[in-house]
Design a protein that fits this description.
Elements: E1 3-8, H1 12-26, H2 32-35, E2 36-40, H3 46-53, E3 63-68, H4 87-95, E4 101-107, H5 115-123, E5 125-128, H6 134-147, H7 154-162, H8 167-180, H9 189-195, H10 200-212, H11 216-228, H12 233-252, H13 258-265, H14 269-279, H15 284-302, H16 308-323
Helix pairs in contact: 3-4, 4-5, 6-7, 6-8, 7-9, 10-11, 10-12, 10-14, 11-16, 12-14, 12-15, 15-16
Length: 333
């Protein structure tokens, strides 16, 4: 029988490992050159996928075709087409896959209303890889570290979970910690204090603290450190916007208990405690003004109307002005 899979979500490391597991099941490493095919979902056409998938395996049990970053599964997007639309033919192919084929799609987001998605769901297996809960992330760190032959104490795993973003980031920090603690029996929290850099999210928390206190120069220093370390301007802007979106949600849910807020907003306790403290420093109207400024900068950066570093520095200054009620309201809302 043929096999059809769709793996999607924000945890790209888990998606990668799921794909590698399938590939190793059917295509030994020695046969990859002839019986494994990877395609770029941003540029591939529907006909390209069909044509590659019609080739029978030469040596392996199945031919494995993986379409990475299948953006045509997102809302409003289609595969690049050389002429006309091959979507109908593609759907027909998915409904009648050859028995020798294992076809895998990966994506960050999907539109569950799309017919392609529904066919994959009906004919194959669909799995979402969402960010782990804080508790599961801590456990994942402990298991992963032990897998590499170096146990990590629980407090160190908790610390690492707090100051990392996705599991790719976690993986890198685990490997650094293992190398640093090579002479020890286990990784301790004090080892992480020496080697771990804070995640973008943790730095944004600190940046917002500086802005709330009017410390623009300190906020700009954190921004410069983030950009110097290689973080993209749009990622920093997204994290700032996300932070204030969460503050807005907290304002809209005032009066609810800590546990109710944690459940409703899907925030781990560390982040929620920080945000509850920060929410007192901004009014609902101020937060809405700041989000409007973030949206405008996002458009300006994407259209090339503003230099990235200058745009972010100006945003930080305007956030402080909004906080102090010095920014005029005209043109903001």
């Amino acid at each position: 029988m043929s096999e059809l899979y769709l793996f999607y979500g924000q945890e790209k490391l888990l998606i990668k490992e799921a794909i590698e597991k399938i590939k190793s099941k059917y295509v030994p490493e020695a046969y990859e050159a002839v019986d494994f095919q990877a395609l770029d979902g941003e540029n591939v056409t529907y006909d390209d996928i069909v044509n590659v998938s019609r080739v029978a395996p030469m040596l392996a049990e199945k031919r494995v075709v993986v379409v990475y970053n299948a953006v045509f599964l997102e809302e409003g997007k289609k595969a690049a087409e050389k002429s006309g639309s091959g979507e109908a033919r593609f759907i027909e192919f998915l409904e009648n896959l050859p028995s020798y084929l294992c076809l895998v799609f990966s994506a960050e987001k999907v539109d569950r209303r799309k017919k392609i998605f529904k066919v994959i769901q009906q004919k194959g297996k669909v799995k979402e890889f969402s960010p782990l809960s804080f508790k599961d992330k801590v456990r994942w760190i402990e298991v992963r570290s032990a897998k590499y032959g170096k146990p990590i104490e629980h407090s160190a795993a908790v610390f690492m979970a707090q100051f990392t973003s996705d599991l790719y980031h976690v993986e890198g920090e685990i490997k650094k910690a293992i190398a640093y603690a090579a002479h020890k029996n286990e990784i301790e929290k004090k080892d992480l204090d020496e080697i771990m850099s804070k995640s973008t999210e943790a730095n944004v928390f600190e940046l917002i603290d500086c802005l709330a206190e009017g410390k623009v120069s300190s906020a700009v220093k954190i921004l410069n450190d983030l950009m110097y370390s290689g973080e993209k301007a749009l990622v920093i802007l997204f994290m700032v916007s996300k932070y204030f979106m969460n503050l807005l949600a907290l304002k809209a849910n005032e009066g609810r208990t800590f546990n109710e807020l944690q459940s409703a907003l899907n925030l781990h306790p560390y982040a929620l405690k920080k945000m509850l403290a920060q929410a007192r420093n901004f009014t609902m109207r101020q937060i809405m003004k700041i989000l409007a400024l973030c949206q405008k900068l996002d458009i300006d950066l994407k259209k090339g109307r503003m230099e990235e570093k200058k745009g972010l520095e100006m945003l930080l200054l305007k956030i402080v002005q909004v906080r102090e009620d010095h920014l005029p309201t005209e043109g903001i809302l």
